[in-house]
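seq as requested:
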Amino acid sequence: MVYYNMWDMMYGTGFGWLGMIFMVLFWIAIIWLIVWIVQQFARGRESSTEILEKRYAKGEISKKQYLEIKKELRK
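struct tokens:
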């Protein structure tokens, strides 16, 4: 005859406290993943003008090139 203890969660196959800890860690990971994804999309992208200004500030392009590209971007 099989003995069933009604006080054991899932008749001894629920992993007890260890299962509960893993479940909490699982939900924390899911929530963290959702927050991370939302932050990635909310951050947005740099505009072409911002990229141009950074390149000019770093000295990657000359003033003449900067003005020409800026003029093209305004069209």
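The radius of gyration is 29 Å.
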